[in-house]
Design brief:
By secondary structure, the protein is mainly α. 73% of the residues lie in helices and 0% in strands. The model has no long low-confidence stretch (mean pLDDT 87).
């Protein structure tokens, strides 16, 4: 397994000719933020590798999530107000560094397909980590709301990359990445100023503020997915015959990928709501496990797209999670599982994390060896 290759030779050859086509930018990006980002990139030393800038951006998400996990281990305890201020600053730092890494690559003449993979791969991990931080700020704890928050990060990101892998163009719907990041900053700042209890206040139709926010955001995320489905459907209606060399396209494969993603969501909802006691005792570990599985799916999708490979219909990273569910089902029906809950939960998380880490390390190593470049 440790010598398993994720990109075959023909995929590495295709990767050398791959050209990334950036998506649409919002008015906020082009009018306000781009001049600021252009100023920031000129402050960076030319010896600083673009992928290192991306890694530094990811470090911001690690700091934010680590602070929340430390002070709110069950995502229901209030954190000191300074933690939320730091989280807001980390989101801004992540946003800035994530925006200038590509500019640094063009500035230093070191652009490569690895940059896109590394950037989007780190984005996938960041979605999971910031999901934890937002859950802590709004104190959703072991509830379906926490899973909804994770979907708010995961679904638009999956939809954008899924659409790009078939149409060749990345689009983030009507609510862009930058707007979403500023919304996160607003959530952290509001929590820091008014306290986490602000999310329990009732305003519209006697509904909690966090419920209103999650409802609107969920609608936006779902609409984004539907728009991506529409774009993919239009693309294949206009391109009924694909070039012979294209392996990763086709309407049937597109919907198989979508079905796989939605199936994982359904499993997560089933596992986290059916076995509520388990979720309450291992809230963060289970959320990270589900989040990393979703991040892995998107990362594999990106690699298959840029290397012109067919996306696997089965991913082995599902196996440990299915075994965890099986253990919970057996414990619920017979009073005892195959092993203790602690062993099952932590073993699942460790295996999922190890498989994801192995994929990241192997894919980067394979691309660097093929292109004759260094990651950093």
């Amino acid at each position: 397994m440790f010598r398993y290759r994720y990109i075959p030779d023909e995929g590495l050859q295709f990767l050398k000719q791959y050209k990334y086509q950036s998506g649409l930018s919002s008015k906020l990006d082009t009018v306000i933020m781009t001049p600021f980002w252009n100023y920031v990139v000129e402050l960076l030393p030319t010896w600083l590798a673009p992928n290192l800038v991306t890694l530094l951006a990811l470090l911001n998400t690690m700091v934010a999530s680590a602070l929340v996990i430390y002070y709110s281990p069950n995502l229901i305890q209030p954190c000191p107000s300074w933690v939320y201020y730091v989280c807001a600053l980390c989101v801004f730092g992540y946003q800035t560094l994530d925006a200038v890494d590509g500019k640094q690559a063009r500035r230093t003449g070191s652009s490569s397909p690895l940059g896109q993979l590394f950037d989007h791969g780190c984005d996938a991990i960041a979605d999971t980590l910031y999901g934890i931080a937002i859950c802590g700020a709004t104190q959703t704890g072991a509830s379906l709301n926490s899973l909804v928050i994770f979907l708010l990060f995961s679904m638009p990101f999956f939809a954008a990359n899924w659409e790009e892998s078939h149409t060749g163009f990345m689009r983030f719907g009507f609510f862009g990445v930058t707007e979403g990041q500023f919304a996160m900053i607003g959530i952290f700042l509001l929590t820091a100023i008014a306290g986490p209890e602000v999310w329990f206040q009732r305003y519209f139709f006697d509904l909690e503020l966090r419920f209103c926010l999650l409802t609107l955001a969920s609608a936006a995320a779902f609409i984004t997915l539907l728009l991506s489905v529409r774009e993919v459907e239009i693309y294949y209606q206009n391109n009924k015959v694909l070039p012979a060399h294209v392996k990763h396209g086709g309407r049937s494969e597109a919907y198989a990928q979508l079905a796989q993603y939605l199936a994982v969501i359904a499993l997560g909802v089933y596992q986290l709501t059916t076995f509520r006691d388990l979720f309450e005792r291992y809230t963060i570990v289970l959320l990270l496990t589900v989040g990393f599985i979703g991040s892995y799916q998107v990362s594999r999708l990106i690699v298959c797209h840029v290397s012109n490979q067919e996306y696997p219909k089965w991913l082995w990273i599902f196996a440990p999670y299915l075994m965890l569910i099986a253990n919970s089902v057996k414990a619920s029906s017979s009073g005892a599982g195959f092993c203790s809950d602690a062993v099952a939960v932590y073993s699942c998380f460790i295996v999922v994390f190890a498989m994801y880490s192995h994929f990241c390390w192997s894919a980067i190593d394979e691309i660097c060896s093929s292109l004759g470049i260094s990651c950093f």
